[in-house]
């Protein structure tokens, strides 16, 4: 069985094959891989090179080479909360306390390793391409591309700010403004490979927030907020909320307390993107996990 990732399309008017492939986002690097590493491009069942001139109603089939697993990624069995799946995308609701990819601290049980095990069981010849990475203790919606080519298209969407993510968080204190934008550059804390801070020489970062509810939990004032990311800096929401004096509940790295919840109270509740091939707008939603819900009771 030929399980190589395949794209099939029919052209409507005469065009060079190279131009038609570019219209599907197939890069020069991908074309080189197809040519030299086990891929194939056919027109009406006959193999052709990119200089071939297509006529109206010609059918093109692109078979990409099989991918090797990324170094250090060992497939593992585990539970996946799959929200959506097709030949190109896998949308997950990631659990808290699970690293997105393996690290020297958490070698096993990562989302990527479990997805690799899922791909292996389903005979999908691809490594794991994470489109939006979540911190280990952050839960919620996460997108995985099922092939390097699809990841390439999704990365272009990210750079064009066409992928939108919304989060809900519970923060310390009562946030004064009902809604606002936080536009403050983020960079590393000196002598730390993990911690970030707002600093003038950091990268541009933009977060919008809206207050959903102000409340008191066991004598502690807290605010339930909805946040939208316009950029994707490491720890962006956590750093920005600390910057305005309202660190996330449970986020002890950035000044939060863990009395009520042993992780940062942060969950990706909405993911919006365009399908990499059909260009259809897609949007998924998920509810807060039980540990965050318990704070709102």
Question: What is the compact description of this entry?
Answer:
18% of the residues lie in helices and 32% in strands. By secondary structure, the chain is of the alpha+beta class.
Describe this structure in words.
Among the domains are: 6-63, Structural Genomics Hypothetical 15.5 Kd Protein In mrcA-pckA Intergenic Region, Chain A (Roll), CATH 3.10.290; 165-268, Pseudouridine synthase. The radius of gyration is 22 Å and the shape is elongated. Helix content is 18%, strand content 32%. A hairpin with a 7-residue loop joins strand 13 and strand 14. With 297 residues, the chain is an alpha+beta fold. The model has no long low-confidence stretch (mean pLDDT 94). The longest helix has 12 residues, at 148-159. It catalyses: a uridine in RNA = a pseudouridine in RNA. Belongs to the pseudouridine synthase RluA family. It comes from Candidatus Kurthia intestinigallinarum. This is Pseudouridine synthase. It is an enzyme of class 5 (isomerase).
């Amino acid at each position: 069985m030929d399980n190589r990732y395949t794209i099939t399309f029919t052209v409507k008017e005469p065009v060079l094959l190279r131009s038609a492939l570019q219209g599907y986002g197939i890069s020069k690097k991908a074309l080189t891989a197809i040519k030299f590493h086990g891929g194939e491009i056919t027109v009406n069942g006959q193999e052709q090179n990119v200089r071939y001139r297509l006529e109206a109603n010609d059918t093109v089939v692109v078979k990409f080479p099989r991918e090797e697993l990324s170094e250090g990624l060992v497939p593992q069995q585990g539970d996946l909360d799959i929200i959506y799946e097709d030949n190109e995308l896998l949308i997950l609701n990631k659990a808290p306390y699970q690293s997105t990819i393996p690290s020297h601290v958490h070698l096993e049980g990562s989302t990527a390793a479990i997805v690799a095990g899922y791909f292996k069981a389903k005979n999908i010849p691809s490594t794991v391409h994470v489109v939006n990475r979540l911190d280990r203790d952050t839960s919620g919606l996460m997108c995985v591309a099922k092939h390097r080519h699809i990841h390439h298209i999704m990365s272009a969407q990210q750079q064009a700010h066409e992928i939108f993510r919304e989060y809900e968080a519970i923060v310390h204190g009562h946030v004064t403004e009902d809604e606002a934008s936080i536009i403050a550059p983020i960079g590393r804390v000196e002598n730390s490979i993990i911690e970030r801070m707002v600093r003038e020489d950091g990268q541009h970062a933009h977060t919008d927030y809206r207050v959903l509810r102000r409340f008191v939990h066991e004598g502690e004032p807290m605010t339930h907020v909805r946040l939208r990311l316009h950029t994707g800096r490491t720890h962006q929401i956590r750093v920005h909320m600390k910057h305005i004096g309202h660190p996330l509940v449970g986020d002890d790295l950035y000044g939060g307390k863990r009395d009520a919840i042993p992780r940062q109270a942060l969950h990706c509740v909405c993911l919006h993107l365009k399908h990499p091939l059909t260009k259809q707008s897609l949007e998924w939603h998920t509810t807060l996990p039980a540990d965050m819900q318990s704070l709102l009771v």
